[in-house]
Amino acid sequence: MILPIVAYGDPVLRKKAENITKDYPNLDALIENMKETMYAAYGVGLAAPQIGLPIRLFLVDTEPFAEDDIYTEEEQEKLKHFNRVFINAEILDEEGDEWAFNEGCLSIPDVREDVFRQPKITIKYQDENFDTHTEVFDGLIARVVQHEYDHIEGVLFTDKLSSLKKRLIKGKLTNISKGKIKVDYRMRFPLMKKKR
């Protein structure tokens, strides 16, 4: 089932999400619905807060980036096959010189800005079977994971912009929160006036 994606301005996007256990209600169905929602919106990641749930769960599928010929064949192969569910994730380490990449977010449509992040992360998480993994990711995979991880920490990519950039996009963000935007996927807007 395709779920509505929560728009910028909803308080759930600012909550630090809670850990869950394997007996979280209907978890398998929730993960399937999140995947369906992410693919319907042409996303490469989706976090539970983006569908209104303040829990530490996010998905990443970098396959769409594999089409981009700026990457080596080896990188394209890696991107093509990176499809993970992250539960109760915790970034243990971030390292390397920060690099800029143009990021966007399904909760903040039509806003894309360069964000600086470190290129290598070590992350501990549980998969959908609640097996625990500690892995190191780098490059674009690390970046997508960092972006989704920020969601479960109550952080948005716009928080990482300079104060000048934040001022420049303020009007766009206000319009998004009021539902004054056209998107081709289902969204839930926090400040839309209810029709009587």
From TrEMBL:
Record flagged with keyword Translocase: no
Family matches, as Pfam families: Pep_deformylase
Catalytic residues (UniProt): 148
EC number(s) from the headed UniProt entry: 3.5.1.88
One of the record's GO molecular function terms: peptide deformylase activity
Catalytic activity: N-terminal N-formyl-L-methionyl-[peptide] + H2O = N-terminal L-methionyl-[peptide] + formate
Cofactors named for this entry: Fe(2+)
PANTHER family: PEPTIDE DEFORMYLASE (PTHR10458:SF22)
Family: Belongs to the polypeptide deformylase family.
Name of this protein: Peptide deformylase
Species per Swiss-Prot/TrEMBL record: Psychroserpens algicola
